[in-house]
Amino acid sequence: MIEVRLGAAAAGDELVEGSTDELRTTAGTLARAATAGRTEVSRPGLGGAGLTAFTEGLALGGYQFSLASTPSPRRRIELRAADDRAAFERGLANASATAWARDLANTPAATKTPEWLAREAARVLRPAGVDVQIRDEAWLAEQGFGGVLAVGSGSAAPPRLIHASWRPRSAPADTHVVLVGKGITFDTGGLNVKTGDGMRTMKTDMSGGAAVLAALRLIATLQLPVRVSVLVPCAENSFGGASFRPGDVVRHVGGRTSEITNTDAEGRLVLADALAYAAARLKPTVLVDLATLTGAMKVALGLRTAGFFATTDALAGQLTAAAAASGEPLWRMPLAADYEGSLGSAIADADNAPGSPGAITAALFLQHFTGGLPWAHLDIAGPARAPKDDGIFAQGATGFGTRLLASWVEDLAAHR
Asked: Are 24 and 113 part of one and the same domain?
């Protein structure tokens, strides 16, 4: 990220007001225009949530991911605003976590194997007080993670499960949040192979996993008194002699089976295992998953808004409020049981690619693995990636969901 420092506002400067979204976007645009060396930005009197948003915008607007042999010139912004150090530091923390999510998703798949992603999660989260366990393919087989093993079967890089836990002493015993993020480190589509254009951005197909890991980092940084567990099922959906095939039947954690009719509908297969495992073994009070799951959601809502499904109005309201507070917009979609029949299979419990309406049938597919718990599914296929530099976004991964999830957990802590 660009370096941002807080300084005292000069006498006589006028306060420029705006909504937090406007402040965040404006700051991002300013940061992108900053040249090498030191740039001064004055917003006197700006404090609280406005200062937090503006700081986020400066830091994220200046984000760059580059593996070029020549490093980018160092840039520094000095922000002159109200002496509200807490709001400023919160903005930096929010931006730092989001930038880490972007870094994870932007890392090329040649580096970002499931094992690399798991080790990177452990490297960053363990010093923050988070317990991180890395489960290998032998453990996955013992526990019945048939979906994860099937998706990863065509790759030379075996699958992994990341299980990260934040359990502070002050956390109440009656609340346990479990976040599940799709961790497909590269998606060729498998034997139902994608086109070249369709594959070009697929190193970011683990953006949901990156977001839940980064949200947990922010939750730990803020020392939020809520028990939170994160599961990221990681696999590379490649193709080869050992790949899973259309016509195969996969058995998930808990025994439910899926007929494979499209190997490119792989995200729901790995999420299904993780959700079923969480519901059966972790005793959560609420489940939320994030995934770049369907092109249908991107068609429906575009590139800035994520669609979500929720089984309770209370959970939907909480997430909508967190979305507004974080500047990461959500739109609730109907979990329409009318389409349940589309999941039917002659040889298994469900078809993994039941067709239109694609986002709804994908959510209905996943709901069967949630154990009847309060659950929300966030399909971030649109806003997880930015096609160009704009506002706080740099072309590539956006880190969408990181601040939203942390804001939601923070609200849970405040209202416990």
From this structure: no
